[in-house]
Specification:
The protein is an alpha/beta fold. Helices cover about 45% and strands about 10% of the residues. Strand 1, helix 1 and strand 2 form a beta-alpha-beta unit. The structure holds zinc ion.
Length: about 500
């Protein structure tokens, strides 16, 4: 069949995108499409058949199409973008289209194996498809379709029948006799889900400036724990702003995070940090806590939790692989982040709740502290002691209720930790089922921290000096007595619970 172009004017009249019916998510393709569409591209209608994948922000999405509707879409489309499923590609070829194909890849959990990649490479070599393995290639092919006028690209070269026959031969060669049968149906049969072990995550929950940085740095010294810093800030401070990693390198130059990005997404440049930040803000925010406390199957919010959760899970799995350590420490501290992790099926979450005298926390929040990890310079936020008091109350109330939500938790007072670090660390190692190494850490020699890759956090983590633990009680002299009294008054309901004096 030969298509007659409807119009010679450059642009795409109707773009149809199909991810197929496999149960694996194929968010990568939807994100690429949305990023490409985020600037004006001279495209008419865009229809996405998304299956189990993310909903497109900018195109009209449908979950599935009946076979007749699907065929109709192929007939109406000027350009088709699809996964590397044989049935979909075959349908395009029958309609005289040369689709832009992004094969699903096993390394991104988009399929059980890489047969789509092998298959598509063979087809691309014969000119039956336009293959896009990276975001840049994908953008280039779509831009080319727009530039040339879509119908010209889509129009058949006059060899449809020949290529359909070749295609069938190739299918049989690659997949054996079963291939012919699968060509007759559009749906690829869902495979059995392969159960991966859960990812152990130790989450540090506390009001910021309660000693969590040094605590997580010390945990990173354990041969079975890897501290990744504040995962909550990975998009803004890591991917977008390229702040310094705990190793001292900018995020984009850090070998550890580079490898994590490669494994998780084929490189950080394959996803948009800005878009991930937007997605994150839809679920990981204080205002969403009521939702995070309920079921993740809620309409509207549920899909965003699942979608963002899949991204976080990919990062965490990649961290396990790159670090070769079995337990991840996340110092994000935010309640909403902890509740989000609790919603993820793949995460085995445990919370280490750190409490510090609220007047000490307030004093720390009133000081000017530089942030050397920000290129160009910046200071840490400052907050009024009254607001810190309220935050202290709210954070500690929330983290003290984690066990009621089914999340194992252990509480450590900052003051006890700095006075007796061996005991405090042992408490955590025991809590997560690890052998203690803390005795050896605090020997006669001064303790120097090894290399770490905390993605964001207190700038103290960048100092390469011997660890000295001492109780910081400067608030007793530095903090305005009126402010200290204010903080005491605000936090009074919970001061006794953590053995802090009610006066101050
Ligand atoms: Zn690093």
């Amino acid at each position: 069949m030969i298509r007659i172009p409807a119009s010679r004017a450059p642009g795409i009249d109707r773009l149809f995108v199909s991810v197929g019916t496999d149960y694996h998510r194929f968010d990568r393709l939807i994100w690429w499409l949305d990023e490409w569409m985020s600037v004006d591209r001279n495209v008419g209608h865009v229809i996405v058949q998304r299956g189990t994948s993310a909903t497109s922000e900018l195109a009209h999405s449908v979950e599935y199409l009946q076979r007749t509707q699907l065929i109709e879409e192929f007939q109406r489309a000027s350009v088709v973008v699809c996964h590397g499923g044989p049935a979909t590609i075959m349908e395009c070829r029958k309609n005289g289209l040369v689709p832009i194909v992004v094969p699903r890849e096993e390394r991104f959990d988009e399929h059980v194996n890489d047969h789509q990649v092998d298959f598509c490479e063979r087809l691309a070599a014969h000119g039956d498809i336009q293959l896009a393995r990276t975001k840049d290639e994908f953008f280039r092919l779509l831009d080319f379709a727009v530039e040339r006028g879509a119908s010209e690209v889509a129009v058949d070269d006059g060899h449809t029948e020949e290529s359909v026959m070749k295609f069938e031969e190739l299918m049989v060669e690659l997949f054996g006799s079963r291939a012919r049968r699968s060509l007759n149906g559009v749906a690829d049969k869902a495979h059995e889900t392969e159960e991966l072990p859960k990812i152990p995550v130790v989450f540090i929950g506390s009001v910021p400036r309660s000693g969590s940085t040094i605590m997580s740095d010390l945990l990173n010294e354990h041969p079975h724990m890897v501290n990744i810093g504040e995962l909550v800030h990975i998009w803004q401070r890591g991917v977008v702003d390229n702040n310094l990693c705990g190793c001292g390198q900018p995020f984009s130059d850090c070998k550890f995070w580079y490898k994590v990005g490669e494994i998780a997404f084929g490189g950080w440049n394959q996803i948009s940090g800005e878009r991930m930040r937007t997605l994150q803000r839809r679920v990981d925010r204080t205002r969403h806590i009521p939702v995070l406390l309920t079921s993740k199957n809620l309409p509207f919010v549920g899909p965003s939790i699942t979608q963002y959760g899949a991204v976080v899970t990919r990062i965490l799995r990649a961290v396990l692989e790159v670090s070769e350590k079995p337990i991840i420490v996340d110092t994000s501290k935010h309640i909403s982040t902890a509740l989000l992790l609790r919603q993820l099926d793949d995460v085995d979450l445990r919370v280490v709740h750190i409490v510090r005298d609220p007047r000490g926390v307030a004093n720390s929040w009133s000081k000017v502290i530089d942030r050397p990890e920000v290129q160009g310079g910046a200071e840490m936020d400052r907050l009024h002691p009254g607001r810190i008091g309220l935050r202290w109350l709210w954070f500690n109330w929330a983290f003290s209720n984690m066990e009621r939500l089914g999340v194992p938790a252990t509480t450590i007072r900052y003051e006890d930790f700095v006075k007796k670090p061996v005991e405090a660390l042992d408490q955590i190692f025991q809590f997560v089922g690890l052998e203690s190494t803390s005795e050896a850490m605090f020997g006669d020699e001064p303790l120097m921290l090894g290399e770490g890759h905390s993605v964001s956090g207190n700038p103290r983590r960048l100092e390469k000096t011997a660890v000295e633990l001492a109780v910081d009680e400067k608030w007793k002299t530095d903090l305005d007595p009126k402010m200290a009294s204010l903080v005491s008054a605000v936090t009074r309901p919970m001061l006794g619970r953590y053995r802090y004096s009610k006066e101050g």
